[in-house]
């Protein structure tokens, strides 16, 4: 899964998701978002997911200060951490259920504003926090 964003700035912002795969119920999903073109202390990173034939669903976020916010439906199973020096954000979702089957994406914010951009795996161009 690869996402590239061009803005009217000198550097290009990219976010690349790695990990995932096929899991069994009860196992833990680990997906890493590798970012470039910005600092994790300047931008927040948010995770969204899209189940087959369904809309985009907000999963959670890690803010510039390192705090988290999670979708209440996932509250006891989700954990988002970051390594600022490696420019990586890790999503962990434990005790997997069949309804967790989805494409998982990371996106970024700057100063609280979301950038609208095309998704490589979806025709939708924006997501709404539920």
Description:
This is Ig-like domain-containing protein. Pfam families: V-set. The strands form two sheets. The protein has a five-stranded antiparallel sheet with strand order 1-2-3-8-7, with no helix packed on it. The protein has one domain: Immunoglobulin-like, CATH 2.60.40.10. A hairpin with a 5-residue loop joins strand 5 and strand 6. The protein is 0% helix and 45% strand. The chain is built from no helices and ten strands. With 130 residues, the chain is mainly beta. The N terminus and C terminus are likely disordered. The radius of gyration is 14 Å and the shape is globular.
Summarize, please.
The protein has strands at 2-5, 13-19, 29-36, 43-50, 56-62, 68-70, 78-83, 88-93, 103-110, 113-114.
User: Radius of gyration in whole Å, from Cα?
Assistant: 14 Å
Q: Number of folding domains?
A: 1
What are the low-pLDDT stretches, counting only 5+ consecutive residues below 50? 1-10, 111-130
Beta-strand percentage range: over 45%
Strand order of the largest sheet: 1-2-3-8-7
Instruction: Determine and state the CATH class.
Output: Mainly Beta
Task: State the shape.
Answer: globular
CATH H-level name... which superfamily? Immunoglobulins
**Overall number of strands:** 10
CATH architecture: Sandwich
Number of helices: 0
Order of helices and strands: EEEEEEEEEE
Q: Give the biggest beta sheet.
A: 5 strands, antiparallel
What is the CATH T-level topology?
A: Immunoglobulin-like
What structural class is derived from the secondary structure elements?
Answer: mainly beta
The helix content is under 10%
Give the distance, in angstroms, between the N- and C-terminal Cα atoms: 24 Å
Mean pLDDT: 77
GO cellular component, one term: immunoglobulin complex
Keywords: Adaptive immunity, Immunity, Immunoglobulin
Pfam family, one: V-set
InterPro entries: Ig-like_dom, Ig-like_dom_sf, Ig-like_fold, Ig_sub, Ig_V-set, IgHV
